[in-house]
Specification:
With 194 residues, the chain is mostly beta strands. It is built from 2 helices and 13 strands, in the order E-E-E-E-E-E-E-H-E-E-E-H-E-E-E. Strands 3, 5, 6, 8, 9 and 10 form a 6-stranded mixed sheet that branches. It has a 4-stranded mixed sheet with strand order 2-1-4-7, with no helix packed on it.
């Protein structure tokens, strides 16, 4: 988990873990917002916009933080957002900025922007290219389904021919049960137990 603390009008990264390219909902960004430094703001009417600039500098994502109802340790607003492919599709540095705002009783808007804080998205290896970038689908569903149906057929041995895995019912490899295609740009071999 990556924790970002807002204190003294500054965002500070207090806890970090690696973020990988194409990571999708495997981790969270945790925001702790000290209410001590928002004393001029009406906390109940407070909005907090999050702005994330992607590594190419050409794309950005905007949203609003939803804070937990109870204060964290009686002095912090707490919010979590999942790290999704919207942020991790490109390797490099992403920049996170918050903008606090509220409208007072005189219909005047009050704004308080923060500094940018940087997070690094670590580039994935080329073996990850076969993963479907659509976050609404499971890229392994088809392969998993094939393997599960083959497991029910009592696989005795496998053989790899280039990027195709052949499953056999016997150790002599004479009764072919089925095949699964793997990405072509990787050299695949069987794991030998030593």
């Amino acid at each position: 988990m990556n924790t970002i603390l807002y204190r003294d009008k500054v965002l500070i990264r207090t806890l970090s873990s690696p973020i990988y390219q194409n990571e999708n909902r495997a981790d969270l960004l945790k925001f702790l917002i000290s209410i001590d430094y928002l004393s001029d703001f009406d906390i109940k009417a407070l909005n907090c916009m999050i702005c994330i600039t992607l590594p190419n500098g050409q794309e950005g994502k905007v949203g609003f933080l939803d804070f937990e109802d109870a204060l964290y340790h009686d002095k912090y607003l707490l919010s979590y957002i999942p790290i999704t492919k919207a942020f991790t599709k490109l390797p490099g540095t992403i920049y996170v900025k918050l903008v606090f705002s509220y409208e007072d009783s005189n219909n005047l808007f009050h704004y308080l922007p923060t500094n940018n804080i940087s997070l690094t998205v670590i580039e994935s290896s080329e073996t990850d290219d076969f993963i479907d970038p659509d976050e609404n689908t499971n890229p392994f569903a088809e392969i998993t389904q094939k393997i599960q149906s083959l497991e029910k057929s009592k696989i005795s041995s496998i053989d790899i021919d280039g990027h195709t895995v052949h499953f056999y019912a016997d150790s002599e490899k004479t009764t072919l049960i089925g095949t699964v295609a793997l990405p072509e740009d990787v050299v695949w071999t069987t794991m030998e137990v030593t």
